[in-house]
Sequence to fold (130 residues):
Amino acid sequence: MRESSVGKAAFDKKIIKQLLLSSFFGVILFLVLSCLFSIVIMKNSAFSDKMFVFSLAALVVSSLLCGFLSAKRNKLKGVISGSISGFLMCAVIYLITAAVSGFSFSYKAIIILPAVIISSVIGAILKKNI
Fold:
């Protein structure tokens, strides 16, 4: 009986590690895409009023990959692994923006959370069904 609980604890650590790694890669991809979009906006000032749209697109693409990576090797359902990794990714991004520039909740922050979680769930479901 004790042997199974030890194996389950090791399994849980493995799942948590995979979810954290996928969230980390999602955040890194978001930062790279944000830098690329910033360069595009600097070169062409016509897109300067579309910064929120570009950042939301970068978040959706990176969270889609985050959900895809989170469902790669674990035995959790796609909805669960995608929502956990998407929430972790969104929390890390909120912490980074709070540290860099005084983050405050606005309608944009409220739009970002469900968009990130839904797209990471879609990525995880796609991986589980492929």
Notes: The chain has a mean pLDDT of 83.
